[in-house]
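Figure 2 data, in text form.
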Amino acid sequence: MRHREINDQEDQDDQDDREDRNDPNDRNDRRERPHAGGASALDLNLLRTFLAVYRTGSFTAAARLLGLSQPTVTTQVRALERQLSRELFQRQARGVSPAPYADELASRIVQPLDSLATVTGAGGPADDHPPEPVHLAGPHELLTRSVLPGLAPLVDRGVRLRIAPGLTEPLLDDLRAGRHDLVIATFRPRGRALASVPLSDEEFVLVSAPAWAERIGGPARIADAGPAALHGVPLVAYAEDLPIVRRYWRHVFGRRLVCQPAVTVPDLNAVKAAVVGGTGFTVLPRYLCTGELASGALALLYDPDDPPLNTAFLVQRPGAFTNPHVALVRDHLLQAARDW
């Protein structure tokens, strides 16, 4: 995970305590003393701060997420460590990594705290200004083909949007750091620190230009000969390691893909354009080529009874509950995805 570099103040505990004595956010912290109480005696503010650091991997990023000063976050985490008599984070040159007990603690509190934040609106600084823009990120093709065309009604209602395309792993890192409110992920985030819900299923299809389909012999030939029927036909792929095509081969044909790509381009729209132009064959999400299949610009090479599916997940940033427009966008996407 990428983390922002820790501010030098994080290692200056005494100075931090002196600087923050007038900070109202620290009043609860200064009352904390080591004691033998159980989890029920722990301050919810300390637990929220711990969870923010756990999710972002940085005291500085957590402070920005919570609307607190960075020394306040440092003080609160250390107060919680004193109460638990356990180390929660290991300080590194860039950010922090959770100690073993932190994983256990996070798994116990993440759902109750997130549910509480939904009810109370806690989790970030409150103000009387209009809602901030909603930062939404996801795969470029899904955003342009399915997501953006359906968001016009929300914009008409005053919702401001900031859209960012990208790959799931770095987008989730940015979500943890507070740079996105919602991410459409191509896989469910690992662990329980990020809440996610299934959004939609995409079906993958094997396609080529009609001329290649005719030369191959169409679906009947592939049904009879299997993938050997594609021998000698150029493969157009999204990436050199062929993640989409390899998955199709494994799921549909039950074997490893041994073909090397003739053309790779990291944009599924460009892959589609190359195949429509007659370059060869490929595997695409059906939603991306429905129009071309209907018009005859692309031909379906095979129609298995059990096509491979991939589930997209909608992931919400912890602490985004205070912006009502985030909930509007989230609920709209969950409803609209039924028709994608």
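Caption note: The two ends are 31 Å apart (CA to CA).
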